[in-house]
Structures are given as C-alpha cells and as structure tokens.
Write a structure and sequence with these properties.
2 copies of one chain form a homodimer. By secondary structure, chain A is of the alpha/beta class. In chain A, the strands form 4 sheets. In chain A, strands 3-2-1-4-5-6 form a 6-stranded parallel beta sheet, sandwiched between helices. In chain A, helix 1 runs parallel beside helix 2. The longest helix of chain A is centred in the last third of the chain and has 24 residues. The radius of gyration of chain A is 22 Å and the shape is globular. The two termini of chain A are about 40 Å apart. At the A-B interface, helix 9, helix 14 and helix 15 of A face helix 9, helix 14 and helix 15 of B.
C-alpha cells in the first residue's frame, strides 16, 4: 500500500457531503496527501465541487490532489476507497411520486418503488469495483443502506461498510437529560434505521431511570412547548417515547421515524407524535422545507465556487466533522484503530436471531486487520418480533422483487401498506407508478426472471 | 404394549367428533377392542356421548369399552392416545367478542385474544401427559393447531401430532375439474391453515394447466352462478384463484380464508371474492349459520341418545370417515403403515426456510417406528416471504405474549390489524377486551413475566 491513497466519490455532486469529506481528509495527518476523484453524471455540480475542494484544500495547506470525471469506470481505476453517495431518483422525482400517490388517497407516500432504482445502481457499482479495483473498500452512504449493503454483500465479493448518522441520536438524549456526553456509555444495535438503545449508562450506572424521570416530570411540558429546530428533530418526541414504552427500549435516530403506521396516518396525527411545526421529517410540511434547505446550501456553495475571493475556510469551517468515513480509512490503512457504528454482514451471528447474510448495524473496532464486530447487549424478543423481523422480511421481499422482476411482489407490498383501502386502489396505483416516465427503469428489471436464484437465501434457519 | 389400547378424548362433548371416532374405531380391525375414556367439563354432553357411543358400538358388534369423567388427570391414567379437541372460549363467547369489536368499527373481528386461552389449556394438557402417561401420543385437533403444537412441542417432551381437514381441499379442485381423485398425485406443504399446492399431477402429468384452463374458460361463469353449498365452500372461489395468481401456487383448504385483508374488508368485498350467499366462512352471515348447524347436530344427537329405540347406525352411518386419527393409531400401534398429512416440528429442516422448532404441515409416512416426514416439493420464496414468514412471526408473537404476559404485545397485534384506524381505537378496544368478563382468564397470564425465558427461540439463523 502506498501512503498516497486514492479515494473515489461516486455521486460527488452531493456537494456538502463531498466538501465535508475533503475537510476531514485535510485535517487527518495520515490522509492529507491523498488523491480524490470526484465522479458524478451532473457536470455542473462536478465542476463546482472540484473547484471548491481544490481551493479549500490549498487554503488549508494540505497536499490533497483532485481530479473529476463523469465516467465511473475511470473513477474506480486504482481506487483504495470508493464512497457511494449517489441517489438515483432524487428529490424532485420523489415529490412527483408522492403527488401521484396522494391523488389516490395516500398521505405522504411514495409508492414503495424506491429501492429498485437504488439496487440497480448499487449493484453495478459493487460489480465494477470487483472488476476494476477489487482490493478497494466500498463505503456505502447512499440509502437504503440496509437493503443495498445486504444485496451487494450477497452478490459480490466487494468489501463493504455501510454508514449512517442515525446512531448520534443518543447524544440528543444525553443533551436533553443534561448529561456530559463524554461520560455516556451506549450501545444501539439493530438494522440500519432500526436501532435500539440496549445500553445507556452514565458514570457507570444505568441511565434509563433518568429517561423515565424526564418523561414523567418534563415530557408533557416539552412536547407541548418544544418547536423542532430541524425537520429531523424528533429524538425526544412523544412518538419516540411512546415507541420506548411500547417496545421496552429507546429507538435511536431514524428509527423514531419508522414506528408503526399509527404514528403517521395524517398530519394531525404526526404533529401529535412528532411535534410542531413539522410533525417529523416525513410530512408535506417538512420534506419541501428540507429540500429547500439543501438547495440553499448548494446555491451558497455555487456562489462561493464562482467567487475567487471567497474565503472558503471561513465559509465552511475547519473543524473535523463527526463523519466516520475518514477515521475508518485511517484505521484500515494506517492502523489508527477506532470504535465505530457500522453496517456489515452479521458474521458469526453476532446479532442473535438474524441470519449471517443480512447486514446489521453494530458497534465494531476497525484497524489494519479489518472490521471486528464487538460484543454488545442483544435486542429483546419483543423488538426482534415487532420491529426487526418484519423489516428483515420486507428487505427480502424488495430484493426478491428486484431479482425476479416479479410485479406481483410490488402489488403485494402496496396492498400491505396500511393506507391502502382496497385491492383495486392498489392495482390502479401500481399501474400508474410503473408507467410513470421517471420510474420506467423498473421495467428493466424484468429481464431477471428465475426465482430459483433467490432460494439460497432462505436456507438458514436450523436451530442451534 | 397390550392390544387393548386406551384412548382418552379431551373435550369429548364435541359430540359429532367423538362419535365419528368411535365409528372409525369400530370399523378398524386392530382397534375395535380399545377402551375409550370421554372427558369433558360439560356433564350433560358427556353423558350424551357416553350413552350414544356405547349403544352405537354395541349395535355394530365391536368390543369397545367406555367410561367417562370430568377429571382430566383421571382420563389420562394409562392412556396410549390422547385426543385433544377442546376449545376454551366456545362459539357464544366468540360471537360476543365480535359484537364488542364491531362496536369499535371492526367487521367480523374477534379482537386477537383467541390463542391465549387455548395456549393455557393445550399446555396444561401436554404437561399432564408428560406427568401421567408420558408414553402416550397426543393428537391435537383443537385449534390453533400451528400455534399450539409449536408451543407444546417446545415446552414439553410429549409426542404430538396435529391434525386438520384442510388438505382435503385438493379433492374439491379435482372434482371441479372432473378428475378422478384416485389418479391425482398432490403435495401441499406449509403451516397449518397455510398450505400450498406445490404438486398437482393427473395421470402422471402436471395438472396445473387444467386449473388455468378452468379459470379462463369457466371461472367467471362459476363465480357468477355458484352458490356455496356450505359456509366453507370456497376452494374454487374467485378469492382462491386470485391468491393463486398473486402467489403462484393454489392455496388449499383453510388457506383460502387467510388471504390478505383486502379479501375481507366488508361483506360486499367478501361476497365478491368468496361468492354468495355467505361470502366465505368468516362473515356475519356464515358464522351464525355454521354455529346453528352445529347446534342442530347436537340436538339430533341428544334426541337419539334419549330415545332407546333410535337406530343409531341408521342415523349416523357405518362407513369409515376420512379422519386420519384412527388410521394413525393403527399405524403407530400395529405397524399398519400409511401416508398422512400431519403437523409436527420441522425436524431436519424438511420445510426449507423454517426453523426446526416450528411445527409445519407436511406429508409423512407413519408406522410402528414413528413419524417419517417425506420429501416434497418446496415452497417458492414468494410464498415464504408473503405468506409463511409473516404467519410464523405472528405465531412467535402470540407465544411471546402468552409466556411473558406482556400486554404491549397484544396492543401491537391489534394496532397491526388492517381494520384499525388509530392508536386510540386500539387502546380503548384492548382495554374493553381485557376487562370482558369472559376473557378475564387472560389476566392469569401476567404471572409469566421473564422475557428471557423466550430468547432461546430466537437463536437459530446461522446460514448454512
């Protein structure tokens, strides 16, 4: 291994993400001499991030070098790390699909076709890596991490780590309780966007009683008066606390958003559970606001990239982010070991009750020898049965639908959406969705037919 | 083993069932000298079946002997076979619970508390057998066979076979297609009430094309004109054929009734899928009619039992039934081997994709050496994911709720009923259900608390 690593960022036009990575590379001793290749199909965004990164890095005095390409195979040549942040449909198409579904009586529902497009992209990136740079690590940050990483690790030999920010939700709990985060010991294993606080200790003692006390003495007042500071500010919402009481452990991060349909049936219900003014991140109020903010950030970055006099360090800061990507590279390539929360296959069945060929989100130590899943407190049966198994099966359905091209699977998923009122409603909506010009790529999947390909995934459960 | 076997029937007041068994015993050479003990908590019914069985058997000239008791432990003394047909709640309480639920806006829904009472009874019978007559076979015919047999085989060492009539549905398909049933080769594995026709051959050739042809050329006419001859006459209904198209294999017997919520949302929908005049067996029209017929049968039996001049053989017939119970005894005790469709633990993972400690419905050869699950055509992933896994998880939830006494599990199940419209609706209904005088026994379950007891059930899935 040379000390100059090559890092390829797929979907680099996610400008804020890319610039944050560049910042972290600049601020990490072992990595400040790396080469970064930006890849995106959007040339304008690609140019923007290339110019910004170059100037920012020079201003900070790092030795990072850069190039850019719209050709994925080219970007992967000689890569040590591939960061996949790409999202196929994008916010505009997503909004269009939600509009379509709302005409059929669904509230804020996108029609359950999402993963298919992402599977297509993810799998082809992982296959390209296998072929072009087989020693590279793929860091998957584009969603769905759970589904996509499971599919890719089953179908390719590419080394993959999936990452997410959700687990930082424990910090919001600590902050709300007035605890020093440095003294908190926590564990939150599960599936991505479905993780549960199995351990929460403060100064060596179980801190769950502090949560209970907060709910009893301050909960109602907080839920009545708190106004979310961002669309995703829901960690201490009434909904999150209800999930805790219903399941027995506190849901962390995006898990809060994934509670049962009864938290999400309409905007009044959502505001009851997730508070004002957004009703949680998944409402007709929150989502456009969130997307608008992203657009503002891009506009700000575009302006800075076009103004040669702009002080980029002043604009974007120079403190290391809490992203795990660069520290993980530092651990893998330079043995600067660390503790992380990652998504990897459930090797040796570390998360009990889940097959080994399913990707789980777990604490791991990473060093030059690779990834070592740590021991952790297991999830109780109640959470496995009510929250983890249903999502595991749903993921298997998504993968089967993708691999078999069997549209009856899509119909079945739509029928089982709680908002669906009749068989005919689902049939008509599915037809419209599949003929929507922007999701026509789904048709492509029909070339995959043989269900048999999949059956190997169902061979596991012998009792130990 | 003596040649005189002792057979104990628990819940013997299910009069028609008991008399059919007596008939089969009379007509089976090896078993016509057996001793039968009737046990029931209803003394009147018990007296009735005792008198009927005695006279019927004498009239047929068998050497069967009988006694009766309301004491279960006494009934089990020295038993070689225990037949458990008991049902705790009964039709009247069931109807009352449905009435209660309908006041909360549910159509023909019983509130999802059913299994808890049955678990209680089944488990105590299996424990009693373990203690009193540990060499006896328990033949479980009272529902829910799938849930109950899984619980009992996990918790006790009692030898258990669960039986059902549902698989005979293949005969209705054959009859509708005009096929000679003797020339049909079939397989329909799965879980009880969730079995699928994986093999259907006629004169050595795949007969599925005959089903397809019937649907295309005669389906619509049949669905328009056919009037169900009984509440359960739904094997060739539009609903059954739709399930076949949606899942790829034909559902057999009670499986037809278990399709997704979209077949069952109201009486108009049910009649669309399951035909006139009942809309399938689970409607406000069919169920009272079904129960009334049962009552008529009991009245007829009571009259016959009170009329010493009644010719019982003329009234009840003298041809062997198609019940599997007596032939299974003949196979186990006298090595008169046979082929059966039974419910037993999934030993050696014969039904692929399902843990070994779950009871499956499969074809088996039975002889003096015991039960030998046969090879059979496996279920495809689409059916596993959409029909089998969800029900497996639901069963695990029922067992966990029963063992832990955790009411939040009951709430969760109610919330996930498609007819539930809001969180509050489920909470208020659950509260009413739990305080319903006739289901108060549920409270008893709260003495079971430790969730840990259950965790061993979730330790299986290492990938092979």
């Amino acid at each position: 291994m040379t000390t100059q690593l090559k890092v390829a960022i797929i979907g680099a036009g996610s400008a804020q993400f890319s610039l944050t990575m560049v910042k972290d590379l600049c601020l990490t001793q072992n990595l400040r001499g790396s080469h970064v290749t930006f890849m995106d199909i959007d040339e304008e965004r690609l140019g923007m991030i290339f110019r910004l990164a170059k100037r920012y890095s020079e201003q900070l005095g790092s030795n990072l070098t850069f190039d850019k390409t719209t050709n994925r195979a080219e970007a992967l040549q000689g890569a040590d790390y591939v960061i996949n942040t790409a999202y196929v449909l994008g916010h505009v198409v997503e909004a269009n699909l939600r509009d379509l579904c709302s005409r059929y009586g669904y509230y804020h529902f996108g029609g359950a076709l999402g993963p298919y497009h992402q599977f297509w992209l993810m799998l082809s990136v992982a296959h390209d890596i296998e072929r072009i740079c087989p020693k590279a690590w793929l860091i998957q940050v584009g969603n769905p991490v759970f589904h996509g990483c499971t599919l890719m690790t089953r179908e390719t030999s590419t080394k993959i780590i999936g990452l997410c920010h959700g687990h930082y939700g424990y910090l919001e709990i600590a902050a709300r309780l007035g605890l020093d985060p440095a003294k908190v010991v926590w564990e939150a294993p599960g599936l991505n966007h479905n993780i549960w606080l199995t351990k929460f200790e403060y100064e060596g003692k179980d801190a769950y009683p502090l949560i209970d006390e907060w709910i009893t003495t301050q909960g109602e007042e907080y839920w009545r008066t708190h106004r979310a500071r961002s669309t995703h500010d829901a960690q201490m919402s009434r909904g999150a606390c209800n999930e805790y009481k219903l399941y027995g452990l506190f849901p962390i991060g995006d898990t809060v958003r994934r509670g049962g349909w009864w938290y999400h049936s309409d905007i009044v219900t959502k505001k009851h559970w997730f508070g004002e003014p957004f009703g949680g991140p998944d409402t007709h109020i929150a989502r456009p606001y969130f997307v608008k903010n992203l657009e503002k950030t891009v506009a700000k970055m575009l302006a800075a990239s076009q103004d040669p006099k702009a002080d980029l360090v002043e604009t974007f800061g120079a403190t290391q982010s809490r992203e795990q990507i660069v520290p993980i590279m530092d651990a893998l390539s330079f043995n600067n070991a660390g503790q992380f929360q990652i998504n990897v296959p459930n090797k040796n069945g570390k998360l009990q009750g889940i097959p080994e060929n399913v990707v789980v989100e777990v604490p791991a130590r990473i060093d030059a020898d690779g990834v070592h899943i740590q021991d952790f407190t297991q999830l109780p049966p109640r959470i496995l049965l009510n929250h983890i198994y249903p999502e595991w099966i749903e993921m298997e359905r998504d993968i089967l639908a993708f691999k078999s091209g069997d549209k009856s699977m899509l119909l079945w998923q739509l029928l089982n959406e709680h908002q669906t009122k009749s068989y005919d409603q689902a049939v008509v909506l599915l037809d419209e969705l599949l003929n929507h010009p922007e999701v026509r790529e789904v048709e492509e999947f029909e070339k995959f037919k043989p269900e048999e390909l999949i059956s190997e995934y169902f061979k596991y459960p012998k009792k130990i």
